[in-house]
Amino acid sequence: MIVVEGIDGSGKSTQLRLLEKWLRFNNFEVFRTDWNSSDLVKSITSKGKKKANLTPTTFSLLHATDFADRFERNILPLLRAGYFVLADRYVYTAYARDVTRGCNPTWVRKVYDFALKPDLAFYFRVPIDISMDRILSGRPKLKYYEAGMDLDLSNDIYESYRIFQSKIIEQYESMINREKFSVIDATVGIKEQQKIMRNKIMHLLPTKITKSISEEPS
Q1: pLDDT (tens digit, 9 = 90+) per residue, 96-109?
Q2: Across-strand partners of 190?
């Protein structure tokens, strides 16, 4: 299991897609799962977001339900079947966001204590200014919850976003050693980041397999 984590605009999703393409090119069975993507739960979460009436605890439990559904239906069965499971955000997203929203850290971890430890967890470290530039260049309108407007951090949605995401960065940084994150400098080139990821994964594989792996596609 390979996990990517980081704030919005860190480039983690781009890198995971490139990694998926490379693994498939080398004939590995691959399954990718995204945060908050369970068909069973995401429609309920979307309705709650539109009404802007989700409390931090409700928000946390909805995401935990979503994760549990995907874990039971997809992640665990495919790991047992020998697939590479690539997760665009994992339990660490909950640890960072839910705690930032005021949930008790011990409680949040207990909610997710059934989750398996990934083989590799990449944390894409990026300064808040760079991540904001990337997000705003693609879609200048921020969403209520992604900007942390429910926390009364600021009346200005952009300033609220900056404060909220900065607090999430602090949570990620506090997890680096405890969770044994492989830290990626998300400000360097895309190819360089991908090369680092591939090299880390190669160390997990038997030598007889790594000898036959091609570097393409880039």
Answers
A1: 999 999 999 999 99
A2: none
Q: What is the DSSP string of 181-213?
A: -EEEETTS-HHHHHHHHHHHHHTTS-HHHHTT-
Domains of the chain, CATH where assigned:
2-210 (3.40.50.300)
pLDDT exceeds cutoff 70 at 50: no
Q: Measure Cα distances from 56 to 14, 32, 93, 113, 114 in Å.
A: 29, 27, 14, 19, 21
Tens digit of each residue's pLDDT (9 = 90 or more) over 31-43: 999 998 887 777 7
Sole residue written with tokens 């897609």? 17
The pTM of this model reads 0.92
146 neighbors 49 (Cβ within 8 angstroms): no
Whole-number Å distance between alpha carbons of 125 and 61: 27
Q: Which amino acid is at 155?
A: N
Q: Which residues, other chains included, contact 97 with Cβ-Cβ below 8 Å and sequence gap of 6+?
A: 168, 171
When pLDDT is averaged across residues 123-147 and rounded to a whole number, the result is 91
For residue 176, the Cα-to-chain-centroid distance in whole angstroms is: 14
| Tokens describing residue 108 | 């949040």
- Distance in angstroms (rounded) separating the CA atoms of residues 136 and 65: 30
For 38-47, which contacts have Cβ atoms below 8 Å and span 24 or more sequence positions?
Answer: 38/65, 38/66, 38/67, 38/69, 38/70, 40/65, 40/66, 40/69, 41/65, 41/66, 41/69, 42/66
Residue 30 per-residue DSSP state: E
